[in-house]
User: Fold these one by one.
Assistant:
Number 1:
Amino acid sequence: MNLHFVSVILIILFGTFNQILFAQAKDVSPILPSPVVYKRVKGNLYLPKKLSLNKSEYPENIRSQFDVLLEKFHKLNTVDTTGKAFIRLRKLKNVPKDFYSIAVNDYLLISYSNEKSLFYALESLIQLIQTEDDIKYIPKAFIQDYPKFEWRGLHLDVSRHFFTVDEIKKYLDLMAFYKLNTFHWHLTDDQGWRIEIKAFPKLTSIGAYRDSTVSRHFTSQPREYNKEKYGGFYTQDEIKEIVSHAKQRYISIVPEIEMPGHSRAALAAYPEFSCNNIQKPVPGLWGVYDDIYCTKEESFQFIESILEEVVNLFPGEYIHIGGDEAPKTRWKHCENCQNRIKENNLKNEEALQSFFINRIDRFLSKKNKKIIGWDEILEGGLSPNAAVMSWRGMKGGIDAAKKSHYVVMTPGSHCYFDHYQSKSKDEPLAIGGYTPLEKVYDFNPIPSELNTNESSFILGAQANLWTEYIPNLKQLEYMAYPRAIALSQSLWCHDRPSYNSFFKTLTETHFLFLDLLNVNYSRSSLKPNIDIASIKNGISIKVNAHDSLDSYKTQIIENDTIVEVFDLKSGQPLSIKSTEKNMTMTDLKFTSTKNNISSGIRIMRHLGLGATTNYITEPNPQYNYNKSLLTDGQYGARPWRGHEWIGFDSSEIVFEIELATKKKVKNININFLKSNGSWIYLPNKVLIYKKRTKRWRLCKSRKVKNEKTKFKINRRIRKLRFVIRTHEQIPTGLPGAGHTPWTFIDEIEFQ
Ligand code: ACM
Ligand code: ZN
């Protein structure tokens, strides 16, 4: 929006009024996502109990939704009039796509460009109304608004866990309230097929149910299963009902039918479309499986018949065909697939995947649909019409945009809402990763590598909600909100307010809205940041609140007994000394006096607590978030969350640790992480050196066999050098084969 345009509209709408107040600072809008223009004007518009409007001006779906929200939020109603209405509408032409404006003066004047923008205007209007002593009013203001990106999405995986029709509707309602407009419905995956296909009834009678589901995190050993049958699916009538519900909210649904991988549920029902015809059950373990669709003709016909029904159910432009995480193991050993490669002069199995996607692209193009797939569809050559959903970072999206393909950005770093949202130990189990609200807020779907023309291929972005660890709607809402609002802000706003300003509007106004909507949103963003630093012979802890005036009732707990209670101001340092003898565990609990939210940390007080580390080998900056981490008394979390460990990606790691004074140390325990799926392996060997006169002398060395590796020291020490050697390469057959293994360490205990 250029300024010239703003002023023209201001004159059109306010030409007869002369009390426009041009505030010095930008006025803060209560509406989220924040509008392009929010200009406060002197005074308030007080609302009658019944807001009159001209019924004929409103499509039925818009009016009824407005009525419901008005009643729910403000106990107000609308009433029809044929005369001058309290809410007046005006249609605009030649304005940006989905543009609307609201002038709040002596009545409400909504100017809009299409039905969708009228709907958005009314959603915004709901957010403008305030109450004081039971009196309803809107601060007089002028609002102008339209979205920056066309694709503002939320995804939902209904395969790993199933959500009912009513739950999906609630998810859509919330999306609409925050002006998100694309619902990516991940309907099929290994652990369950969720859409009725009339031509292949076994897809749901067999494919929609698994016999058992893995308990706890899937990397936890030994693996345990709950041995309960689990599943469900949507009938075609239910799909139609949801499509219609979404349409009324101006949300387009992108159904995903995964291929060629993540197809175990389909192949459990119809094993004849796999490479080896072997029937295997619908799995209850999360992961990536070798069994994928074969590329024989019968398999294509099977998939095309499915898509034929899918296309008829979903009126939207795009069909998502998956394409991610498809191991080529079966294709390599399949006569049919190898023949396909030869017949078509293909280079390898990656080219066969490209051939696969190409064929589906041609089929769907004939049905007037566009395909979109995960960024793996770039491998082996991108199909001519395909759009790319970039999930393994932004690179796939950048490559695709440079080739003039449309792109939706959904990088794991900012858009995976199955990641943890705070570092607090009491977050419910999640898959891993760390994507706090502020990080989502900072997301920009346009990477700096793209020029203006290339950037025009970025349709927008979406957040993905994979549901391995999201078993129900409550947990779904907890993971999605408020992060989805931060995402909407990144996608809607042309010029985002600061995070602090957003955070204030969010927590002071929108948390109340979410309460009214009965949403189980996360309040983790209100938790303070807890900073730990080394001090002489111990650590210093600072609890930094978002509101610097906050203070914390602090409890020190030892052996489950509260030993001390005191008040700690935000930012005030609290010191914890290292032990002089045996290791002891100390728990600290901080409860905010402002919002009553508690956070806790657990500290292992060992002889080396707060010892300084000098890194000769630099840790990878992606994971090295705190220099004192190796001796801060806190252990890296399991399952691994992506932080809280020092991560190295070199084959020799060297660092020195210096205690505050010379101490008699019996043992040193080094805690490593083993998470092979993330290419994190135990190292091969550790050597510990002690400084004698001017030279480092080897004091201990041993091979690493376990995550916790113990070294008997039994002497007085102050400064040690650690040399850690990894295996040269990850061996063939293991995740990340051929690469240098990652080494993750935390903590090093001195006993
Ligand atoms: C994905 O997360 N496998 C697209
Ligand atoms: Zn095959």
Number 2:
Amino acid sequence: MLSAVERKIEQFIADLNDKEVSRLYTQLPHGKRLRAKLILKIAGSSLSVVKTAAIVEMIHAASLLHDDVIDDAYTRRSKPSLNALYGNKTAIMLGDILYSKGFLELNNISADVAKVISNAVVQLSLGELKDVSLSKTFNLDKELYLEMIYQKTASLMEASAGAAALLAGKPKEAYMIYGRNLGLAFQMIDDILDITADAETLGKPSLHDFEEGKTTLPYIYLYEVLGNDEKEKLRSLHAKKLTEQEQLWIKTIMQKYQVIQKSYLEAKVLIEEAIALMNERGEHALSSIAMQMIERDF
Ligand code: FPP
Ligand code: MG
């Protein structure tokens, strides 16, 4: 039923009656539509469910358009990002259009659903700002990192699952915990892949996060176990363009101290908790979505 969501987004875009926006939209890669999948698996495929899934995907797409401008990212899902193709101004405005059209349509669902989703978008924006601020420092505080990824990524997955539960008349708490855990694990794995996956698989340069000033979970764990000289060396490499040799040093030392494995295990625990919660409710399709997340390699 994901195709019904695609058609609904296309219809929302066509409503805008603007040829340039329609053309720009066709250039956006669709991605995995993970949030829409969650919503459909929880709530079926009635019209308001499909609309909610389409709205959430439009908001998500808007946030990535803005994020690529903020992160100076010139690729998205192995293709040139919209800011790379048409510049920042166009990318920002297309984001604003998708976001505001999504909000306009949200008014036609229910007040409860609108509240859950709009609260998540506030969190999303607060999280992105926190990400920007933290990347100006050499952040070593794990709690701050977790709070930031909760806001930036997990809040919209939590809200997607919660909104779907509301639409389906299911108790929203368990579904929200499921969405939250999935979102946290998703971002942790995204951050791990920035280190472990090669640039081709990733569709963006490897170690880009650290070059951008982001100290994600493996860096936080690494710093805890390094000796003083190594600590100093890692600090000196933060937020700068890395040579191949420097990249290799980071990857080798991470391997030596097994911090990728440690970070991955933390994501896995969250996924296992989400799976147990859904198995308890007989929601096996949701358990298998969670399972796919820890198996993904891009
Ligand atoms: C990706 O993080 C970014 C997000 C999940 C959220 C971005 C949110 C905003 C820009 C603010 C809200 C926007 C609107 C339209 C209200 P990342 O850079 O770690 O992931 P990446 O590797 O996919 O780029
Ligand atoms: Mg980014």
